[in-house]
Amino acid sequence: MADSEYAEIFREEAGELLEELETSLLELEKDPADLKIVSRVFRAMHTIKGSGAMFGFDDIAGFTHHVETALDKVRDGSVPVSTELIDLTLASRDHIRALLDAATGGGEADPTEGERIIVALQVLVGGGMPLAKQAASAPQVSEEEKDPTLGRRSHYRISVKPTPEFFVGGSTMEALLAELDTLGESTAFMDAEQEDGGALILLTTDKGVNAIEDVLVFAESSCRVTVTVLAVEGEEELEEHKKLGEILLEQGEISAEDLKTVLDRQKPLGELLVGEKLVSRTSVDAALAEQKLVRESKEKATVAKGAESIRVASEKLDQLINLVGELVVTQARLTQVASQHKESELVEPVEEVERLTAELRDCVLNIRMLPIGTTFVKFKRLVRDLSAELGKEVVMVTAGAETELDKNVIDQLGDPMVHLIRNSIDHGIELPEERERAGKPRKGTISLAAHHSGANVVITVTDDGKGLDAERIRQKAMEKGLFRADTEPSEQEIWNTIFMPGLSTAKTVTSVSGRGVGMDVVKSTVDALKGSVSVTHSIKGQGTTITIMLPLTLAIIDGLLVKAGETHFVLPLSQVEECVELTMEDIARFHNRRMLPVRDQLVPYVRLRDFFAIPGERPVREQMVISRINGERFGLVLDGVVGEHQTVLKSLGWVYRHATGLSGSTILGNGHVALILDVTNVMQCARQEEHNTLIN
Amino acid sequence: MSAKKETVQSQATQYLTFMLREEGFAIEISKVREVLDVTTMTRIPRMPEYLSGVINLRGNVVPVMDLGLKLGMGSIEYCKNTCIMIVELEVDANLVEMGVLTDSVQMVLDLNPEDIESVPKMGTNLNTEFIKGMGRQSEEKFLIILDIDKVLASEGEAALREIDSIASTHSVAANPEESVGAEA
């Protein structure tokens, strides 16, 4: 029914409004007396209703109308804000979402749910129409909503300014007027002397504005047509009455200057009133000040709204980012060629291009950055609903909502976060009585925090619940064969087994003590985002902290280009701490043990040539790049360091998705492919392999 | 008669024929996106031998497989005819590109269904899963029609198994004594 393009616009707009609605409702719950929030809720509902009707989403408009009616009672203060009201309004929000999804081809909405909400709202606000009629009248209401002027005597001003095509097409103004006349009483003002042959019609009719537009629709392609509703009978005027001068000005009968000269002869109203001693000067001044203030704030709001944002399809952004990626690669190539040619004339423009490219890159990447706080709102709702369902008392606190992350990352982060929060409430936080017995406050706390750390974003989910039961998890993990019987896993290793798929079913650890529902899903999603997730802290009886670490963006990173044999590798610059030289003497001094003292600290290292079995002689002087991983220093030994390199990340393809020690690839200036090192993975593998060798 | 011939023609499929060690092979041409000369390849370490590495295909990184090694016929030796067929296949509902290294690409051939014989139960010395049929090019000459999707799709698990075995035999600390001893 609804045009798909408009439906898409409406879907997006309504999606945003629903989110805003949710935020406002949760705020309102905290501060029920704040009427500003009530108005915000009301406005959001009203906008959804209005545009829903406009785009042909009649069921949404119909349903929203009822909710709006109830909210109106709250707004005028006759019904107080209560938990039930907020519950119902939140439920309405969900129902609108369902209707919206159903209308745009995603799932189905339950019509009885809508009726249930409406009935409950009616009972709550007390009164209104009888219930049966309410439910039945929904479609009609929406019809009415679409055109508030339908069936009510209204006055319209219609201005028709034809272009020459109008007459070429064989139309006459008279025919148009005659047709308009069938709608109601019309008075036409045609100026025969005017060359354009335009007309101004005042029409009074009860057929509604849509009927008028239907008549005018064929003229619209060849005329400039404007229809203005002057007044609807029986309705309060929203706008103030237009002044005579304004009307004439609007009609183009008088120029602004003329109007001004005439008006200037008149004394301002305030002066007149004071002159007549009807009011005091102070009260006039106060009234004027008030008027000025209102006008200014209105203007400000308009300006702010204009600068706010524009909507762009995300594919367009992706395309832009790809192009910038290509540009970065080409620019690197240009720099390389220029340095070979040693043309002094080239140096400056090439440097300029380099600078501009870097700026452009940062700019473009920034477009996709969104504050993570947008998702926090969703979780507030989740915490509220879930804790109520489980009979627990939980508050959620957030920090670092302004931390920005790539939109693609944020989009995919939703599910894992939901899982983590669910687990914290379900299995972490105890029932209020239990908490009291343990000497903790009745209310549990879940805190979500985000902050930047180098090129990463760190997100933590912390609860003050009962903590992980390491012993139970260890037993379970042993049963599943995740640890060998003869090994003694560290506490951290035990905790992190909760992310293993084997431990994620409800009948295992979850029902007894730990967590685990869908934790493997969390891990696989985060892995796919090139991030990591781990339990970083858990104390029995005190709570658990789970940390997710994610790269800032998936597109471009600053890297250090290095070489081993014929192959070029790139290390993420953020992971590089320093580079030192490794000589034959150093190696001999340590009896071939792979470690080197760097500033009084022994740093273990792995030689990339050995790790990757790269053929050929290694150079006499090797370079060691030192990274810090989980607080430990670790060195990678290579043939040489080439320099810094802006890297456009490319996947190695599905065939190589299991490649060891590599996280992707990039294309160098000379068109060759370089491999991006996953230093953490190299270290873990090397450690594991050394361990295996020793056991054998 | 003529009508019959038309229907037969409309059923003909176009194949691209290529050589591996003097033996003729063919794959459906609809799978082949383009044919390239051999370019600089970057080897991915610690991966099975038959995965030759990755190439830069106009800004995209595309993996390349040595079809000779994959089919157990020995590695392909580079010469002026050696080329890479870029093949498109669907993996998990995504279209991915993959390079296939062959000794030389020959021609485009129309084959009617009746020109294709079923796969012999034995004697091909190849995994029969990878073969769609035997195409008759002339009286004496047969082509092995490969099911390139299966050849490439078998990659996932096979590669994983091999990586595991590589990891278990591989060790960074395998021979530290020797490496320093030689130079000290």
TrEMBL record, chain A:
This is Chemotaxis protein CheA. GO terms for molecular function: ATP binding; phosphorelay sensor kinase activity. InterPro entries: Bact_Chemotaxis_CheA, CheA-like_dim, CheA-like_homodim_sf, CheW-like_dom_sf, CheW-lke_dom, HATPase_C_sf, HATPase_dom, His_kinase_dom. It comes from Thiovibrio frasassiensis. Residues 556-688 form the CheW-like domain. One of its GO terms (cellular component) is cytoplasm. Keywords: ATP-binding, Chemotaxis, Kinase, Nucleotide-binding, Phosphoprotein, Transferase, Two-component regulatory system. Involved in the transmission of sensory signals from the chemoreceptors to the flagellar motors. CheA is autophosphorylated; it can transfer its phosphate group to either CheB or CheY.
Automatic annotation (TrEMBL), chain B:
One of its GO terms (biological process) is chemotaxis. Transmembrane segments: none annotated. Residues 12-157 form the CheW-like domain. Pfam families: CheW. InterPro entries: CheW, CheW-like_dom_sf, CheW-lke_dom. Gene3D superfamilies: CheA-289, Domain 4, SH3 Domains. It comes from the Bacteria. GO terms for cellular component: cytosol. PANTHER family: CHEMOTAXIS SENSOR HISTIDINE KINASE-RELATED (PTHR22617), CHEMOTAXIS SIGNAL TRANSDUCTION SYSTEM ADAPTOR PROTEIN CHEW (PTHR22617:SF41). This is Chemotaxis protein CheW. The lineage of its organism: Bacteria, Pseudomonadati, Thermodesulfobacteriota, Desulfobulbia, Desulfobulbales.
